[in-house]
Amino acid sequence: MVCWLLIGATILNRLFFHSQLPPLLVPTLAIELAPPAVGGIAYFALTADRIDLVAHAFAGYAALMVTVQLRMLPRFLRLRFSPGFWAFTFSWAATASYALEWIALRKPPGAAADAAVIVIAITAFVGYIAVRTVMLIARGKLLPLRHEPRPAGSTSGTTSPSVTSVGALARGRSDR
Fold first, then answer.
1. How far apart are CA 23 and CA 31, in angstroms?
2. Is there a domain that residue 7 lies in?
């Protein structure tokens, strides 16, 4: 709880009082979804699945954070895919697990179908991010480009620095 408060306060301070996050860091905002889900799962584990005011508070805050994430969906969809998208996987997997806990405890009508939809959706989501990551690796664009130092005594400022991508190195050639 203390870490949640400290990290949450730091993130909110950054968002409210400083410039916008660079596009590559925007997906990391998904991490704000994880604390209520993980906290709720831990609370159920500590209290033998007791549903009380604290359990409802975790669920309410998780629902609020899901709403915030859905509201940010248009911004997320405009981003170019990057390794930062892996920030979504933990947060949404934790939220899916938390939803499955509630379904198992409450046993609403259609619980099995709801649980199946959640499991299929989170599996497809994580699988999609994994496939996109493999595609970046295959194109040699997963990690930033490495700039090679200029030779000593080089004064030409008109030539662009030689760069080699990680994927090109893996394939045994450089992109010059």
1. 15
2. no
> Which residues have C-beta within 8 Å of that of residue 122, sequence separation ≥ 6?
92, 93, 96
Contacts of residue 47, Cβ cutoff 8 Å, sequence gap at least 6:
55
Mind listing the pLDDT tens digit for each residue in 10-30? 877 777 788 888 888 899 889
Contacts 24+ apart (CB under 8 A), 104-113: 105/44, 105/49, 105/51, 106/51
Sites in the chain below the pLDDT cut of 70: 1, 3, 144-176
Please tell me the distance from the alpha carbon of residue 93 to that of residue 50, in angstroms, as a whole number. 22
Could you tell me the CATH number of the domain that includes residue 56?
A: 1.50.10.150
The pTM (predicted TM-score) of the whole model is 0.74
The secondary structure of the chain in percent helix, strand, coil, rounded to multiples of 5, reads 70, 0, 25
Question: Domain range for residue 52?
Answer: 17-148+160-171
- Helices 86-106 & 53-71 angle (0-180, nearest 10): 140
Give the chain's domain count.
Answer: 1
> N- to C-terminal Cα distance for the chain?
50
Judge whether 163 and 147 are in contact, CB under 8 Å: yes
